Amino acid sequence: MSTEEPDWRQCIAGRLRERSRIETRGKEIILQNNRLLDQATQLKADNLKISVENEQLRTALSTGGGKDASGAQLAIAALEKKLLAQQEELTDLHKRKGENSQMIVDLNVNLEKQKKLIAEKDLKLTEQQAANNSLRAEVAMLQSSLDQLKKLNTTMLDEHTALQLAFSSLEEKLRAVQVS
Fold it and tell me: What is the reported pTM?
């Protein structure tokens, strides 16, 4: 019994470490998802700011004219390029956010399955422990019965030996009486 308990405890400890590892992995994904949301919000704010600057430059270009026009067009082109890059990055962040959200859903489903499996294993373990206790009680009862039967057998053998001696004694007396 004492050699079985450490193995059993090590098995449970291993399962708990595995469960902890799975749950921790989900937390990392949630933190990463939160960081992506923050980045997406920042990019949206930058996008809005660049769009406003772009419109201001277009308005200045359409009303101002002159030599500032070519500089403004270059600035507009640079801002449009920057806006396009940030929109691409925002799209990528949304895609990653969706992937992370799906991973969170999958991990939650897996976690629920693991919880059900652990509950089933705990139930089976409890049932097996109850059966084990019942069998131990039965073994103890049978051992007690065996001890009683051994004592009874010893008593019967002693009585048989005593009767055998008495019979032998009576038989000798009978022979003695028949001879005389």
Answer: 0.45
